Amino acid sequence: MSTDLPHTSGAPTLEDVARLAGVSRATVSRVINGIRNVAPDIQEAVHRAIAATGYVPNRAARSLVTRRTGAVALVVSGAGDAEGGEPFESRVFADPFFGRVAGGVVGYLRPRGIHPVLMLADSAQTRDDVVSFLRQGSADGALVVSTHGEDPLPKLLVDAGLPAVLWARPARPIPISYVDLAHRAGAALAADRLVARGCRRVATISGPFDVPAAQDRLSGFQEAMAGHGHPYVPAVEGDFMPASGEAGMHRLIKEHPDIDGVFVANDLMAQGALLALRDLGRRVPEDIAVIGFDDSAAVTCRPPLTTVRQPMEDMAAEMARLLLAHAADPDFQVTSVIMRPTLVVRESA
Amino acid sequence: MSTDLPHTSGAPTLEDVARLAGVSRATVSRVINGIRNVAPDIQEAVHRAIAATGYVPNRAARSLVTRRTGAVALVVSGAGDAEGGEPFESRVFADPFFGRVAGGVVGYLRPRGIHPVLMLADSAQTRDDVVSFLRQGSADGALVVSTHGEDPLPKLLVDAGLPAVLWARPARPIPISYVDLAHRAGAALAADRLVARGCRRVATISGPFDVPAAQDRLSGFQEAMAGHGHPYVPAVEGDFMPASGEAGMHRLIKEHPDIDGVFVANDLMAQGALLALRDLGRRVPEDIAVIGFDDSAAVTCRPPLTTVRQPMEDMAAEMARLLLAHAADPDFQVTSVIMRPTLVVRESA
DNA sequence: CTGAAAGCGCTAACAC
DNA sequence: GTGTTAGCGCTTTCAG
Question: What does pTM read for this prediction?
Answer without folding.
Answer: 0.92
